[in-house]
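Duplicate of #3305? Posting structure anyway:
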C-alpha cells in the first residue's frame, strides 16, 4: 500500500514543481520584528570538533552569566521554538543550542550508529564547555527531553536543573498516536511507517509536504489560525504568521537535503531504541516536567512515570495542549519555568550527589558537596 502512496507523492510533487506558486508579500510586523531582529544580530554561529572528529554547529545568543542549554525537538534548525522562554528571561541567561549531528550544518559521522541519543548527549556536554560554562540550566523539548536525561546521567556535574517539555523517557513508538491510553498495534504502525519511508525516498515526502503546506490557500488559512488562535505572547514575539514561518523552517530544512530527511527518520528509530526509564530514580536534579494532556507523539503518561521516579521533580499537565505546549500555552510554560527556576535559585537546597551513569552501563560514582572527599571511582 505504501508504494501507491509513495508514487502518488512523487506524481503530485512533480506536478507542483511545474506550477508557479506565488509567495505572499511579507507583512511588516512592527511588534515582533525588533525581537527577532535582535536575535539575528546577536546570534553567534560557532563550529567545534567533537570527540570523534566531526564538526558540530553551535548557536550562542550572548546574555547574562548563566547558561541555558536549549535541547531542540527533532527537525528544528534554529531556536525559534524557544522564543517564548528567551523573550521572558531576556539577558538573565546566555542561550546555547546546536544542530544535532547528522542534521543541517553539523556533520554526519561515518557510521549510522554514531547518531544515537548517547552521542547527542555527549555533544551537549561539549557544547556547554565550548560555550565557556561549567554547568547549565537544561531545557529539553520533545527529542531534547531524552537528550537532556541522558546528559544528566552521563555528565551530571554539568546540569544545574532541568525544564523538560513534551517528551518521553524512551520507547516512543510504543505510545505514539495514543494520547490518552495505550492501544494495541498502534506502536507497530509507527515503526512500520518509518521503516517504509527509509526504504524509499523520505526527501520526496518532505518536499511534497512543504509544497502542500505553503500553497496559497493553506498558507492563508494557517495565517488566519495564527491570527485568531495564537496567544498574545506569540503574536508579540513572532507575529501573526508564526505558523507559516515554523512550517517553512521545519519541513523546508528537512526537505532541502537527502541526508536531513533520511537522518530525521533514523533519529525517530534512535528515540524509540533509547530508554532511561530504569535509571530515572538516579536523577536527583531539580526538574520541571511540562506535559500536554492531548500530546499525540509523547503522551503525558510518560511524564507521569518520570515524575513518579525522579525524586526532585515537579509535574505540570496542561489539559488543553498537544505536543506543542510551549506554543499553544506559552504563558503557562513560561510562568511555570520562571517560578520553578526562581524557587530553585532562592532555596539552593539541592546538594548533589552525582552518579555518572549511562542508559546501558554503570560508569563511575562521584560525590560532591560535603562528601566530595570520599569520591569513589570504580
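Output from current build:
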Amino acid at each position: 500500500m505504501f508504494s501507491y502512496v509513495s508514487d502518488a507523492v512523487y506524481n503530485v510533487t512533480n506536478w507542483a514543481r511545474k506550477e508557479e506558486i506565488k509567495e505572499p508579500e511579507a507583512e511588516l510586523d512592527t511588534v515582533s520584528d525588533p525581537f527577532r531582529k535582535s536575535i539575528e544580530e546577536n546570534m553567534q554561529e560557532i563550529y567545534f570538533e567533537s570527540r570523534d572528529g566531526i564538526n558540530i554547529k553551535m548557536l550562542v545568543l550572548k546574555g547574562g552569566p548563566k547558561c541555558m542549554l536549549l535541547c531542540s525537538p527533532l527537525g528544528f534548525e534554529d531556536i525559534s521554538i524557544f522564543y517564548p522562554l528567551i523573550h521572558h528571561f531576556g539577558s538573565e541567561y546566555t542561550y546555547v543550542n546546536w544542530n544535532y549531528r547528522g542534521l543541517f550544518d553539523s556533520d554526519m559521522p561515518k557510521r549510522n550508529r554514531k547518531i544515537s541519543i548517547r552521542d547527542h548527549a555527549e555533544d551537549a556536554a561539549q557544547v556547554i564547555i565550548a560555550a565557556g560554562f561549567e554547568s547549565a540550566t537544561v531545557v529539553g523539548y520533545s527529542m531534547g527531553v531524552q537528550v537532556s536525561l541522558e546528559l544528566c546521567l552521563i555528565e551530571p556535574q554539568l546540569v544545574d536543573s532541568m525544564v523538560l517539555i513534551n517528551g518521553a523517557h524512551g520507547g516512543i513508538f510504543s505510545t505514539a498516536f495514543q494520547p490518552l491510553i495505550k492501544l494495541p498495534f498502534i506502536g507497530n504502525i509507527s515503526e512500520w511507517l518509518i521503516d517504509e519511508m527509509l526504504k524509499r525516498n523520505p526527501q520526496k515526502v518532505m518536499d511534497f509536504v512543504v509544497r502542500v503546506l505553503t500553497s496559497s490557500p493553506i498558507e492563508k488559512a494557517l495565517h488566519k489560525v495564527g491570527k485568531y488562535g495564537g496567544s498574545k505572547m506569540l503574536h508579540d514575539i513572532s507575529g501573526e504568521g508564526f505558523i507559516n514561518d515554523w512550517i517553512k523552517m521545519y519541513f523546508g530544512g528537512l526537505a532541502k537535503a537527502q541526508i536531513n530527511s533520511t537522518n530525521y527518520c533514523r533519529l525517530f528509530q534512535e528515540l524509540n531504541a533509547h530508554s532511561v526509564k530504569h535509571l530515572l530514580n538516579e536523577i536527583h536534579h531539580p526538574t520541571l516536567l511540562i506535559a500536554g494532556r492531548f500530546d499525540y507523539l509523547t503522551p503525558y503518561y510518560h511524564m507521569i512515570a518520570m515524575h513518579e521516579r525522579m525524586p526532585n521533580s515537579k509535574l505540570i499537565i496542561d489539559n488543553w495542549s498537544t505536543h506543542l505546549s510551549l506554543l499553544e500555552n506559552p504563558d503557562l510554560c513560561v510562568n511555570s519555568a520562571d517560578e520553578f527556576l526562581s524557587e530553585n535559585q532562592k532555596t539552593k537546597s539541592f546538594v548533589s550527589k552525582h552518579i555518572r551513569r549511562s542508559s546501558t552501563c554503570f560508569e563511575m560514582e562521584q560525590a560532591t558537596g560535603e562528601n566530595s572527599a570520599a569520591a569513589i571511582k570504580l
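Confirmed duplicate; merging threads. The chain has a mean pLDDT of 83. The first helix runs from residue 2 to 18.
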